[in-house]
Design brief:
The complex is a heterodimer of chains A (375) and B (890). Chain A has helices at 23-44, 64-75, 101-106, 142-147, 180-189, 263-274, 294-310, 339-351, 358-370; strands at 2-7, 49-52, 81-84, 111-113, 118-123, 126-130, 156-162, 194-198, 204-205, 212-214, 230-236, 241-247, 252-260, 282-292, 313-316, 322-325. With 375 residues, chain A is α/β, with parallel strands linked by helices. Chain A folds into two domains: 2-247, Purple Acid Phosphatase, chain A, domain 2 (4-Layer Sandwich); 252-370, no CATH class. Chain A has a six-stranded mixed β-sheet with strand order 4-3-2-1-11-12, with helices on one face. In chain A, strand 3 (81-84), helix 3 and strand 4 form a beta-alpha-beta unit. Chain A is elongated. In chain A, 43% of the residues are buried. With 890 residues, chain B is α+β, with helices and mostly antiparallel strands. Chain B has a domain at 389-483. In chain B, 66% of the residues lie in helices and 13% in strands. Chain B contains 17 helices and 21 strands. In chain B, the strands form five sheets. Chain B has a six-stranded antiparallel β-sheet. In chain B, helix 8 (389-412) packs antiparallel against helix 9 (465-488). The longest helix of chain B has 193 residues, at 192-384. Chains A and B meet through helix 2, helix 8 and helix 9 of A and helix 6, helix 7, helix 14 and helix 15 of B.
Chain lengths: 375, 890
């Protein structure tokens, strides 16, 4: 019986360009902090070790501070051994961060780099079958290569690998795709007991065995991720394997599309945004669709402006947004512009429709502001 | 606003004036300088502007000098719905009184009155218009600003009643300000836009630099991997090279042994060959000696044969020589003979020539003698004949003169005809003439003539003066002729001519004889010529006697000359033959000498060859004494055998060595060594390169390039968004500005049109129908076009500017008049306008006067005479003041 924590894709050193100068450092700090959370969880759950299935670092060129802080975070739980697998982001090439003077100098005793393909004993009768990346573009299924010649000799083997499973890979021609079927076969005949994978940032169980897992990124990194922010707690018994994803992340990526047709919709959006509990660690991308009058648009701008201050990031996704702003009846009516001003307004309104109307809409909004419609 | 009446008292120099004005139409207030015309204008302004308590300088200046009274003004005017009478006194007992007549009667005094008027004016009067319509004395030629609310309203109404107000103007200012945030005047980006764009470029450059640096690292990683792979391959190859080198080394040892054996055999072969060559050389020498002996014998025999063969040739040469000498002697005798013949023939020829010369000399002598005689005869003739050519000519001339004189005398003379009535005799000048009956005789009376009928009558007829002169001329001519004939020694002209001919013949004879004498004598005297002929004759006679008779002398000189030439030719032939004979002697002598020398040489050769033969024989015998021919043959055979055996052994060793291909093996050994060295070098280089790359990666890998790139990309993304946002705002601001600007210009143009048209309407009276003007945004005239020529306002003449200034005021006043407007006041205007234009200006003023109130103040009454419908008021000078109630002009 062995219990361990399966995690991957820490990608330490990653930055998100859309984050501002205030949130970016917090985001980076959270991604180091989650290591401590993982260590603490492992210790709390009585795990002997943690396997990190690749992409510990965003790149081999990360700055020293990232390396030293990561090692320091792992050192916080000395009873838990961290087995780090080089992945495609941090392969064991000549520039490998795992061979950098900083890493070597500061590596605590509970940190082990899986720097050679093959078995690494972790407990009596239990070994890791490490499948590290030595460069960024392998030309074969490294897992298949590592498993060649294995026999079901009673050793409980945990494959620690990184990369796309062929079943889930969109790239059929990828020579390095990990073939799932042989893994399932090996799981079935006892040559291996569990496959700890990294690469996919969403926590995912592959196939039907329940023994092949992508742990997912412990802190989310993108809007596209389905279920990030977990580590998988694994129990290996003689015959059975139990897995349980455990939330460890603290940040959230939210992509939201809002249909806006009037002040009620603007109000609903306001309520939606207000509903987030941890706005300072939430990154929101809004896709705004519909048509608003100038008055509603001013309200919308106020809502967004307010929440921009609250959220770690609140951005409008320009590409996906199709929000048309046109003067509604009464927007300018009350002002009763005369002469050239009235004619100019009419000209702009005439131009505000259609594909090229965006500038005219902006001009109308500006006019609205200048005539004092928006304070 | 319309002013109905102005009254002033104690106002500067004006004691009192009361002026009634037409509310519509032109009022011209005339007056000399300083009668107070300007005071009227000032009074209207001050009553409206200054409170009665004012102590301002301009109020104090109103105080009449030396009088303790306060200046007073009373003004009756209507404005808007109001009509009021307003009076003020300043300085002394100041007061303000207001009576509002319409719409409701109200009376106020003091400050209340002033404030109320202010309020009414604020309500009803465009004060800017009030200012603009007043062209005051010394006010300059600047255009008034017509950007006035009242004009604006009027123009707005004219433009369609579309009133824009302060709100639109303020909006436009904000739109312009918004635009100015993003654009320069020429639509270039400015401010934050530029800043963001520059920062974006900088961020992109940073990102590019970081990307490039990472790319270098990635390249180094790839390079390190490549080097590692290559090193592994090189190491494997190196092992193969080592094995091949060991194999080659063992083969090289075998070849070395074979090479040593071959060297030994080669040495032995060289010794045998050397011995063999030595004996060959001895044998060759022996053969050489025998050969030489044989050749010496042959040569001696040949020499002896040559000696015996040379003797007959020498004898023949000597015989030839002797023959040649004999032939030469014969030719020499022939030459002597021919020379004698030639000498005689030459002398004969000379002899015959001298004979001819003697005859010629004698002939010449005879001719000279004859000619000398002829000379003497001619000289005698010349001595007797003195008539030469000129003398003859003079005689002939004299003769002619006599004939002419006589003819003249006869022709001019009177004549006497004597007719005999009976036979009678008359004496004429003493000469009797017998006349028969009926005979007639005529006498020419060339000179005095005596006519006598003897016995009867004696007539002495005297010639006239002319007859005498003619008679004297005849006498003179005759005397001259006689004198010349005497001089010539002749009787008359005929004789003279004969003598002259004889003289000419003698002269010709003399010349011809002298010429012939010169020809025949040449350079000799006649005596010398005779002597020369005789000397030569003696010599000819001598030769004939001395010469041998045979052969005879040729008959004449020609034959003698031919014989001489023939003898000369024969002599030449003999001499040529003699020369040939001499040459033959020389040639034969040479041949003979050569034969002698050959003979001696052959004898010497025989001696030499005999000596050589003896020497060669001795040498051979000496050699043979040392080693006999048999012994020599045996030694040579032995050496040949030994050499053959050594050659075979060497060939065998060399073929064994060749079988091992030593050269190829050497090349392979060398190549293997070099290849190993190269491989080792490559491995060492690779290791070094890997170390270098590794060091570089360790160093650069920790620089945090990823962070640098991330920072740059983050900055770039933020800047891109910010720039996109600001660009969108700028585009919106621009579109808004341009849209509104276009509409505004359109409106302004529409709005300006009535004002422009009104100015043009008035102006065409002055400048003609082609006048067009352009207005600026402040409704000022910007430029004027007349007859297609456009001139900026500021470039116009002073007069034209003044006129346009007036016309613009009239136009403005007439447009706003329906809304109340304000009076137009021209104080001392049109001073710059030339008299020719004054009537047209007057007409324009009159036209405007139909709609509005125009007050003209002038000290030059004629200046406004052209204003048709106007009321003229005359302000007289002191005694101060009058007057005057509307003296209407037509």
């Amino acid at each position: 019986m062995v219990r361990f924590l399966h995690t991957a894709d820490w990608q330490l050193g990653m930055t998100r360009h859309f984050l501002g100068s205030e949130s970016q450092p917090r985001f980076a700090a959270a991604r180091v902090e989650v290591i401590r959370t993982i260590g603490a969880l492992a210790a709390a759950e009585g795990c002997g070790f943690v396997v990190v299935a690749g992409d510990v670092f965003e790149t081999n060129h990360v700055e020293r501070q990232v390396v030293e802080r990561a090692l320091d975070a792992m050192a916080a739980t000395p009873a838990v051994t961290f087995y780090l697998l080089p992945g495609n982001h941090d392969p064991l090439d000549a520039a490998s961060v795992f061979r950098s003077p900083t890493f070597l100098r500061h590596r605590p005793a509970n940190v082990v780099v899986l720097d050679a393909p093959g078995p690494v004993p972790v407990a009596p009768g239990v070994e890791l079958l490490a499948v590290p990346w030595h460069h960024k573009h392998p030309l074969s299924d490294l897992v298949a290569d590592a498993m060649a010649g294995l026999t079901a000799d009673g050793t409980a083997r945990i494959v620690v690998a990184h990369g796309a499973i062929d079943w889930l890979s969109a790239d059929r021609a990828n020579p390095a795709a990990i073939a799932a079927a042989p893994l399932e076969a090996a799981l079935a005949d006892g040559r291996i007991a569990y496959v700890a994978l990294g690469d996919r940032h969403s926590t995912t169980s592959v196939g039907s065995t329940g023994r092949i897992w992508y742990a997912g990124a412990p802190e989310p990194t993108d809007f596209r991720e389905i279920d990030p922010g977990n580590a998988v707690l694994v129990d290996l018994a003689d015959e059975t394997v139990t897995t349980e994803p455990r939330a460890v992340g603290t940040w959230h990526f939210v992509a939201h599309e809002a249909q806006l047709a009037g002040s009620a919709d603007v109000g609903a959006l306001h309520t939606f945004l207000d509903g987030f509990a941890d706005k300072a660690r939430t990154i929101v991308r809004l896709c705004l669709v519909g048509q608003l009058g100038l008055v509603d648009m001013v309200t919308l701008d106020e809502v967004l402006d307010h929440h921009t201050q609250l959220f770690a990031s609140l951005e409008r996704w320009e590409r996906g947004s199709e929000l048309v702003v046109l003067p509604a009846d009464g927007d300018f009516g009350a002002l009763q512009l005369a002469g050239f001003a009235r004619d100019g307004l009419a000209d702009l309104e005439a131009q505000a429709h259609g594909a090229a109307g965006r500038v005219a809409q902006d001009a109308l909004a500006l006019l609205y502001r200048l005539v004092g419609g928006a304070a | 606003m319309r002013i109905h009446r102005i009254a002033i008292r104690n106002f500067r120099g004006v004691q009192q004036a009361d002026i009634a004005l037409d509310p519509t139409g032109v009022t011209i207030i005339e007056g000399d300088n300083e009668v107070g015309k300007s005071s009227v204008a000032d009074a209207v302004r001050l009553i409206l502007e200054e409170t009665d308590s004012s102590k301002k300088a301009r109020i104090r200046a109103l105080q009449p000098v030396g009088r303790d009274v306060g200046p007073e003004v009373s003004l009756e005017f209507s404005t808007g719905p109001y009509r009021l009478v307003y009076a003020k006194r300043w300085l002394k007992r100041p007061s303000t009184e207001l009576t509002i007549l319409e719409p409701e009667r109200v009376q106020l005094t003091g400050r209340d009155a002033h404030d109320r008027v202010d309020a009414i004016l604020d309500e009803t009067l465009d004060r800017g218009l009030w200012q603009a319509l007043r062209l005051e004395q010394g006010g300059g030629l600047n255009q008034a600003s017509f950007a006035l609310p009242s004009l604006g309203r009027a123009l707005d109404l004219a433009a369609g009643g579309d009133l824009t107000g302060d709100r639109e103007d303020a909006l436009w200012d904000r739109i312009s300000a918004e635009r100015d945030q993003y654009f320069t005047a020429t639509w270039r980006p400015r401010g934050l836009r530029v800043d963001l764009a520059e920062r974006l470029v900088a961020a992109e450059e940073r990102a590019a630099a970081a990307t490039a640096a990472i790319a270098v690292l990635d390249q180094q990683v790839v390079e390190a991997a490549r080097l590692a792979t290559e090193t592994t391959e090189l190491a494997a190859r190196q092992e193969g090279l080592e094995r091949a080198a060991a194999d080659l080394r063992s083969r090289a040892q075998v070849v070395a042994t074979l090479r040593a054996e071959r060297e030994q055999l080669a040495s032995r072969h060289q010794v045998a060959a050397s011995e063999h060559e030595k004996w060959c050389s001895v044998a060759e020498r022996r053969l050489e000696l025998a050969g030489r002996l044989t050749r010496s014998r042959d040569r001696l025999a040949a020499a002896e044969r040559a000696v015996s063969q040379a003797a007959p040739a020498r004898a023949a040469a000597e015989a030839h020589h002797r023959d040649a000498i004999a032939a030469h002697d014969a030719d020499l005798a022939a030459v002597v003979e021919a020379e004698a013949v030639h000498l005689r023939a030459s002398r004969d020829s000379e002899h015959r020539r001298q004979e001819i010369e003697v005859a010629q000399l004698r002939e010449r002598h005879e001719r000279v003698v004859t000619d000398e005689e002829a000379l003497r005869v001619a000289a005698a003739v010349l001595d007797g004949a003195h008539v030469d050519g000129p003398l003859l000519a003079r005689i002939e001339q004299a003769e002619l003169e006599v004939v002419r004189a006589e003819a003249a005398a006869e022709a001019g003379a009177a004549s006497v005809s004597i007719s005999a009535l009976a036979p009678t005799k008359v004496e004429i000048d003493g000469v009797a003439v017998a006349l028969a009956e009926g005979d007639a005789h005529e006498v020419r009376l060339t000179s005095s003539t005596d006519l006598v009928v003897p016995g009867v009558v004696s007539l002495s007829i005297q010639a006239g003066a002319e007859d005498r002169a003619r008679a004297e001329r005849v006498l003179a001519a005759r005397a001259e002729l006689a004198h010349l004939c005497a001089t010539a020694g002749v009787a008359d002209l005929a004789q003279a001519r004969h003598v002259a001919a004889a003289r000419a013949e003698a002269e010709r004879t003399t010349q011809e004889a002298a010429a012939r004498i010169r020809d025949n004598l040449r350079d000799l005297t006649i005596e010398a010529l005779a002597q020369k002929a005789e000397r030569l004759a003696t010599k000819v006679a001598g030769y004939a006697s001395e010469r041998a008779p045979e052969p005879s002398i040729p008959a004449d000189h020609d034959l003698a000359q031919a014989a001489a030439r023939e003898a000369e030719a024969a002599l030449g032939a003999c001499r040529a033959r003699l020369a040939e004979a001499a040459a033959a002697i020389t040639a034969r002598a040479t041949e003979r000498n050569a034969a002698e020398i050959d003979d001696k040489g052959l004898a010497t050769t025989v001696e030499h060859e005999a000596a050589t033969l003896a020497g060669d024989l001795a040498a051979l015998e000496r050699d043979q004494a040392q080693l006999s021919d048999d012994a020599l043959a045996t030694a040579l055979t032995g050496a040949e055998a030994a050499r053959g055996e050594a050659t075979r052994a060497l060939a065998s060793a060399e073929s064994a060595l060749a079988a091992e291909d030593p050269e190829s093996l050497d090349a392979q050994v060398t190549n293997a060594a070099e290849a190993r060295q190269r491989g080792a070098d490559a491995i060492a280089r690779n290791r070094l390169a890997i170390q270098r790359v590794q060091l570089g990666l360790e160093h650069d890998g920790e620089k945090g390039l990823a962070r640098e790139l991330d920072d740059a990309l983050t900055a770039r993304d933020h800047l891109q968004r910010a720039l996109a946002a600001i660009e969108a705002r700028a585009a919106a601001a621009r579109l808004l500005y341009e849209t509104f600007d276009a509409r505004r210009s359109e409106t302004r143009n529409r709005y300006l049109a009535p004002f422009r048209e009104r100015i043009e309407r008035f102006g065409r009276i002055v400048f003609g129908q082609s006048l067009e003007i352009e207005l600026d945004a402040d409704l000022r005239i910007e430029r004027r076009t007349v007859d297609g020529i456009t001139v900026e306002f500021d470039q116009l003449s002073t007069g034209a500017r003044e006129q346009l200034g007036l016309l613009a005021r009239l136009a403005c006043a007439s447009i706003v008049s329906s809304d109340g407007g304000a009076p137009v006041v021209f104080d001392d205007a049109l001073g710059w306008t030339d008299p020719g234009r004054l009537p047209q200006m007057g007409a324009a003023i009159a036209l405007a006067g139909r709609e509005c109130q125009i007050i003209v103040l002038t000290c030059t009454p004629g200046r406004f005479a052209g204003v048709g419908a106007a009321t003229t008021i005359r302000m007289a000078g002191p005694p101060r003041m009058t007057i005057v109630d509307g003296l209407s002009a037509s």
